[in-house]
Amino acid sequence: MDRFQEENRIIDHPLDSDILCGKNKACLDHPGSVEFRSIIEQNAQRYREADSKFMKMEITKQLYNQIRRQSVRFLKFNHSKKNGWQELTSSQVRDKIGHALRFVNRRKRRKNRATKKISEAAKVPTHRRRMSYDSSTTQSTSSESMVSSDDADETMDSNQVTPARKAHGLLTTNSRNDQFVPVTKMLRGLSKSLLSKIPQTISFNEGWQSQTNIQNCLEMGEFSERDVLSMMRQPVMDFEPQSVKPVWL
């Protein structure tokens, strides 16, 4: 008679070799349960690579016979009567083995997908790439319409915060610490329509960051040549980058 068929058999004290079914810590940490998980881990890949359902069933059967030869029992607590542990039938044991193999493979697939996502995210640049300049008349006209004239810049209220001054303040805020404000912070609050072709060489006033850093930043930025010229005429402002709310929020 198949010892796993003894459905009504009640065990008072499980052996160390027994496999306890349950999600609580006592069941998971039981020596037999730990050994069972190790066996499943060792055979999970073989089960995953099986070409057919029949081959998967054969692997499950092999593991079942291995457990049976070692006189290992699958036990579950009798919650209804609360009078001890009850041994699973052979059919229930096979189901448990198959479920454990599928669970391990499903967990590995999820882990691999998560690792792949992290790897792909690491390849994405942390700053916004410079938008390619379109020389078409429509975009050029739209861009120029958003730029203030030189005369308007000269008579502008000194307390008015413009996109140009925002950029100027962001570029100069951390100069005393010899730190360059990240491009993402510099772009916050600037209109996306202020894109214009940036000249290759620009001279900057004393007290600014190095010309190389600022030029690199401008090449990836979203403000026009006139905004740059306006910034060169404006005094350094006490401007905190944190106070600029991103336009995309």
From TrEMBL:
<dbReference type="InterPro" id="IPR049227">
    <property type="entry name" value="DUF6824"/>
</dbReference>
<feature type="domain" description="DUF6824">
    <location>
        <begin position="18"/>
        <end position="102"/>
    </location>
</feature>
<dbReference type="Pfam" id="PF20710">
    <property type="entry name" value="DUF6824"/>
</dbReference>
<feature type="region of interest" description="Disordered">
    <location>
        <begin position="107"/>
        <end position="171"/>
    </location>
</feature>
<feature type="compositionally biased region" description="Basic residues">
    <location>
        <begin position="107"/>
        <end position="116"/>
    </location>
</feature>
<feature type="compositionally biased region" description="Low complexity">
    <location>
        <begin position="133"/>
        <end position="149"/>
    </location>
</feature>
<protein>
    <recommendedName>
        <fullName>DUF6824 domain-containing protein</fullName>
    </recommendedName>
</protein>
